[in-house]
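Hello, quick one for you while I still have it in my head. No rush at all, and the record is pasted right below.
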Amino acid sequence: MRSVTRHAHAKLNAFLRVLGRRPDGFHEIQTAILPIELYDVVTVEEHDGLVTEVMGERAGELQRAGGESLVGRAAHAWATAAGVGAPRARIVVDKRIPVAAGLGGGSADAAATILALDELFGTGLGPEALLEAAAAVGSDVCALVSGGPVFADGRGDHVLPLHAARSHWVVEALRFAVRTPDAYGWWDERPSSGPDPGSLIAAIEVGDHELAGSALFDDLQPGVADRHPEVARAVAAFGAAGALGAVMSGSGPTVVALARDPAHADAIASAVPGSFVTTAPPPAPPPRTIAEPSGVV
């Protein structure tokens, strides 16, 4: 059977500005989303019906968190957009991205599923149809189906490509989960919006890491840190290690720190146990393999 394999890259939020709760229950936001090197592997192959499997080092985290892989919903969203009825595919996720960490692992898997199904079955959906399918699954899926850095606003479903100079980050994925609805609910209790992100976006685009580091912010961070002081401790640890800036990513609890260059990133990671170095965006486009029935890749 033919199959398509895609790398589903995690993301970080260089900033997250929350502007208020919308009538539909979502929140109006502005954010810059940067894909990073860390990825899950999503393989889609022809099958009699829809079967989804999660394996790998982080599979247990998903089960313990009481969550679900989004790939099943993504498959149905793709089938609706493509007008093909029920999806007929076996989807296997090799889970490597921490779960409920603010790194977009579930959304990345969903985005990779939509793209892989579109390629496997040759439906050739255009950008608008792909975004429509992504929006039916979740807001972050819209950003990640684009495959590169984006500026997102609305509820996160309106995305524009963002030129982002190569940047080096240190990531600490804290050992507990934060549900996205909880993070936004805590913001609702004490709503406060960060500054206009124009200067930060400009710094990201031209690679002014010093300016970008000083301007990182996440409006969800205070509410999460109030309940999980580990977040504030991680930010402080990165600051003490000489990071240009540190911030919680998305709904947390992962904390990311910006470095000047790879050597600086390595030095910061050495000073903060449990952290790792990554690059945004990844050095190369997300790779994929297409296997023909013969098994030749």
Summary: The CA atoms of residues 49 and 151 lie 36 Å apart.
